[in-house]
Task: inverse folding
């Protein structure tokens, strides 16, 4: 099986800090790959490199065989890699629905100057996604007024509205109330499966990992310490010591 | 509410005004024409960017109308002059825009100022082409093919300015409600996410920039033709400052702020200039500070807020931001 | 050949003046993250104050040598009084606000000061070249040039450059400024009073601008509009160097000064445009300026 998204020999340093030191990782179609590891291990940096926000000093990243390095986040998004953020990145002075419609309009190539954004045909789709992540009730609110948990969900919904092939998520349920976490992840992973979206998510909660990931990669100071099926990786004594802190 | 009732009512009043108060025509013509560049400033403020140099496009429009009129002989035809000014400001807007849309905030503001200062000094220096600081005379053109008397011509220009204003306000209002317009507003709050939605912030801003340049250029051509002269002052930073001032005064959160601001501004200038005399610009500066610090949503924004309070709508958004207008009904 | 020497001398003298103003602008930006659009007005204020002082000295029959110390006194006065008032009553209200709003506030001050200058000093140009004559001429490669421009101005510029470096590195107040520049949150977290640092920085910045104006007054006619020209020019220098870069501003000022004087002699129609051509070229290749560091936002 050939990898959908593939990273090889990625290296990047910020001053003296090594954030990637020979990272190599393959993401296959249908994967729900979890990235775990201590803070500062370079997990977010890896997502930044895959989406063109940062350029590594060495290595290459390919998507369906074509090179991603040197491409802008915009171009990479258009290729079908969407991203949700650790700190929600919303348009604070627009409503949640307007945020969503803008994403949908961009996906559909509808950036015409005189049609109304509110009237685009993708509106139903966008509202359905909002409903899926449980944010229908706040769709007319300004993004800036939302509580942190909702902001996080809208952030993911924006990425989903792009109908990506691969979705990269940075701690998707951090900030979401723990009573809702699993319900939301259930629907999210269900939706990804239904739409055949491959996903990669950075996660700290091991229960989430064992429940929703089919593969796990463990980051440690810019390297992949271990990679494999959750049951195997999470029971590895070395991983338990460095990451899980057991 | 504003675009469905208040604005059409005002336009209707303006349309019948010459029948009742023809002495206001000249004043209102200037109000309408100078509101055009302000609409452009408001458009850019929606993207969070302020230009301290848009007078350059105002001057491009005015001088272009003058050159084309002279080249056609006898002042030319007003429609052709306006189309030429529009074309010239598209070209100028693209030329400057392709460079400045790479930058934001401070750089955007100051690079626009720098470009306008260059144009100003070129207009002053190349005396044999531009007439230097004495300015460039613009002869009265024909009006839709008709050679009109001075008073008929001015009435014609009055209606033409009104039509251009209505088209521009309505057009920019629609633009701001379109996907492109929303992308423009999104640049203000989170440009990174705009990129991550697959939208080019630069291209979006360039579209907004060229539209704003065209509005300034057409406004400049109208003022130039109406006053019969274009001077380097048209490009000077104080005029760019006036545009920004009027946008903030009227309220940068809504396109009609341009009209409200332009009206109040010209009114004060006509009535109070005699008293203020040499302290005009100083007064503007002080008032600008007052608005920014105490009523950043300007005239239209404050009216919307007032209207909401009367109707008992709860205030939802903070008003500390330039370019917001509260709940737009 | 002689023209080249002349152009170089001109460029150095001019670059020295522009540096004095630009370094103030860049220092204020580096610490406060505010671009003071009214900065050029302080340059003009300094120039007018110096010209008035010169005139007063002459009519009082005092030694024209007094002009030199008086220039410094005038610059500090403008810095502390006008700059201090502006920081205390305006800027303090807008720290942390959106950049557009900050730009508009300083722009409003620019409008006010520009008009105030016209009210106080009128629109007729002032000339006060006495300090220029006092220092006499020097001969360099067969060119006679004023010592004021060839020696005095560059020396002052160098003194300011090294003085600032010394101040920022080896004094307590200076290292506090550096700390705040590099990481405001961390600096305030360890108990540095950012307000006092901001006040001090702003006063220094304004003093430098008006010192530039005072020292420029003997070499040029003092007239309305000089403030507007200087703000764009000093911004061009600061942006070319990278906003916040102090040593870089010296290099950029020299580049732009020389570029401009070369244009004056070899392509006069480009004189005004030259500084901007340099800036545009630099920014196209390096958007963060020659010495600036680009930073990515954490997402």
Result:
């Amino acid at each position: 099986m050939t990898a959908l998204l593939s990273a090889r020999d990625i290296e990047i340093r910020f001053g003296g800090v090594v954030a990637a030191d020979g990272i190599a990782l393959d993401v296959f179609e249908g994967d729900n790959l979890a990235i775990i590891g201590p803070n500062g291990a370079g997990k977010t940096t890896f997502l930044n490199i895959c989406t063109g926000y940062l350029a590594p000093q060495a290595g290459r990243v390919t998507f369906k065989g074509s090179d991603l390095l040197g491409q802008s986040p915009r171009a990479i998004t258009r290729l079908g890699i969407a991203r949700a953020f650790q700190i929600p990145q919303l348009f604070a002075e627009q409503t949640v629905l307007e945020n969503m419609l803008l994403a949908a309009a961009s996906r559909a190539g509808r950036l015409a100057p005189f049609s109304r954004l509110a009237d685009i045909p993708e509106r139903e789709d966008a509202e359905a996604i909002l409903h899926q992540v449980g944010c229908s009730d706040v769709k007319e609110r300004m993004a800036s007024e939302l509580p942190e948990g909702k902001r996080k969900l809208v952030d993911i919904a924006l990425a989903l509205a792009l109908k990506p092939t691969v979705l990269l998520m940075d701690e998707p349920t951090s900030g979401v109330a723990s009573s809702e976490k699993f319900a939301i992840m259930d629907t999210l992973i269900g939706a990804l499966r239904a739409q055949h979206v491959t996903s990669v998510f950075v996660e700290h909660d091991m229960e989430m990992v064992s429940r929703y990931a089919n593969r796990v990669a463990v980051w440690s100071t810019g390297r992949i310490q271990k990679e494999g099926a959750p049951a195997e990786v999470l029971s590895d004594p070395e991983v338990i010591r460095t990451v899980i802190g057991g | 509410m504003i675009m469905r009732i208040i604005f059409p009512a005002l336009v209707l009043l303006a349309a019948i005004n010459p029948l009742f108060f023809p002495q206001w025509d000249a004043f209102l013509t200037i109000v309408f024409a100078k509101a055009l560049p302000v609409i452009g400033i408001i458009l850019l403020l929606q993207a969070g960017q302020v230009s301290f140099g848009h007078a350059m496009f105002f001057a491009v429009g005015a001088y272009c109308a003058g050159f084309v009129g002279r080249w056609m002989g006898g002042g030319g035809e007003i429609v052709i002059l306006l189309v030429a000014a529009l074309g010239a400001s598209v070209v100028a807007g693209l030329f400057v825009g392709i460079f400045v849309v790479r930058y934001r905030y401070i750089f955007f503001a100051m690079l626009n100022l720098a470009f306008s200062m260059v144009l100003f000094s070129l207009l002053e220096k190349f005396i044999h082409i531009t007439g230097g600081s004495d300015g460039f005379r613009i002869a009265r053109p024909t009006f839709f093919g008709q050679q009109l008397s001075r008073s008929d011509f001015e009435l014609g220009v009055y209606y033409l300015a009104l039509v251009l204003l209505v088209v521009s306000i309505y057009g920019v209002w629609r633009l701001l409600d379109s996907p492109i317009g929303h992308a423009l507003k999104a640049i203000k709050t989170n440009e990174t996410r705009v990129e991550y939605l697959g939208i080019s912030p630069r291209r979006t801003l360039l579209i907004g920039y060229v539209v704003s340049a065209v509005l300034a250029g057409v406004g400049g051509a109208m003022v130039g033709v109406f006053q019969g002269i274009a001077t380097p002052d048209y490009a000077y930073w104080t005029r760019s400052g006036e545009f920004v001032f009027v946008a903030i005064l009227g309220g940068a959160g809504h396109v009609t702020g341009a009209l409200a601001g332009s009206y109040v501004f010209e009114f004060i200038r006509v009535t109070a200039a005699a008293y203020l005399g040499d302290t005009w610009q100083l007064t503007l500066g002080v008032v600008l500070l007052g608005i920014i610090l105490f009523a950043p949503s300007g005239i239209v924004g404050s009216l919307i807020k007032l209207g909401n309070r009367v109707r008992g709508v709860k205030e939802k958004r903070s008003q500390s931001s330039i370019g917001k207008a509260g709940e737009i009904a | 050949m002689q023209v080249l020497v002349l152009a170089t001398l001109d460029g150095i003298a001019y670059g020295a003046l522009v540096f004095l103003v630009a370094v103030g602008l860049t220092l204020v930006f580096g610490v406060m993250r505010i671009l003071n659009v009214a900065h050029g007005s302080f340059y003009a204020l300094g120039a007018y104050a110096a010209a008035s002082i010169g005139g007063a000295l002459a009519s009082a029959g005092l030694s024209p040598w007094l002009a030199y110390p008086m220039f410094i006194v005038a610059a500090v006065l403008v810095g502390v009084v006008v700059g201090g008032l502006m920081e205390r009553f305006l800027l303090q209200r807008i720290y942390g606000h959106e950049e557009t709003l900050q730009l508009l506030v300083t722009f409003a001050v620019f409008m006010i000061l520009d008009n105030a200058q016209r009210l106080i000093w009128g629109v007729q140009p002032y000339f006060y070249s006495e300090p220029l004559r006092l220092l006499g001429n020097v001969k360099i490669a067969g060119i006679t040039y004023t010592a004021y421009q060839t020696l005095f101005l560059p020396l002052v510029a160098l003194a300011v450059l090294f003085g600032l470096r010394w101040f920022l590195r080896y004094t307590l107040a200076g290292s506090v400024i550096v700390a705040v520049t590099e990481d405001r949150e961390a600096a305030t977290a360890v108990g540095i009073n950012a307000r006092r640092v901001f006040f001090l920085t702003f006063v220094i910045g304004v003093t430098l601008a008006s010192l530039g104006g005072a020292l420029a007054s003997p070499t040029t006619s003092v007239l309305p509009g000089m403030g507007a020209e200087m703000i764009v020019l000093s911004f061009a220098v600061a942006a070319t160097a990278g906003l916040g870069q102090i040593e870089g501003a010296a290099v950029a000022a020299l580049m732009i000064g020389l570029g401009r004087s070369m244009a004056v002699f070899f392509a006069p129609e480009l004189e005004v445009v030259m500084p901007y051509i340099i800036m545009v070229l630099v920014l196209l290749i390096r958007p963060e300026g020659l010495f600036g560091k680009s930073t990515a936002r954490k997402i």
Remarks:
- The two ends of chain A are 35 Å apart (CA to CA).
- The first helix of chain A runs from residue 43 to 50.
- Chain A has one domain: 5-244.
- Chain A has nine helices and ten strands.
